[in-house]
Amino acid sequence: xxxxxxxxxxxxxxxxxxxxxxxxxLPPVTEILRGSLIERYVTCGNPACKCARGERHGPxxxxxxxxxxxxxxxxxxxxxxxxxxxxxxxxxxxxxxxLEKISEINRELLRRDRKQERKQ
Length: 120
Ligand SMILES: [Zn+2]
Prior knowledge:
Blueprint: H1 12-24, E1 36-42, E2 57-68, E3 71-77, H2 82-119
Antiparallel strand pairs: 1-2, 2-3
Helix pairs in contact: 1-2
């Protein structure tokens, strides 16, 4: 067993309570987005513009989404959507993280049941 998880020290009841607690804290599964927001300051190409002297335009926001090895997609995100996209990305990570923890707890519960069966 992984010593780092610390689940081995908890009672079965505590493990069940912990996974119920995690389930209650799951963000709504419809409010998620997998990807990263990137902030950029850009030049417009006009040599007379202040950006040509180093005062770049921005921030401009981009979403990048990895589709597979070497394949990404995404696009510009308007400033008015940045907060919503940020929340969706956070929700995605929270959801994934909590599902992984629940999965770990269930593996620990299975281990306990196997141990108990062997004793009988
Ligand atoms: Zn410019």
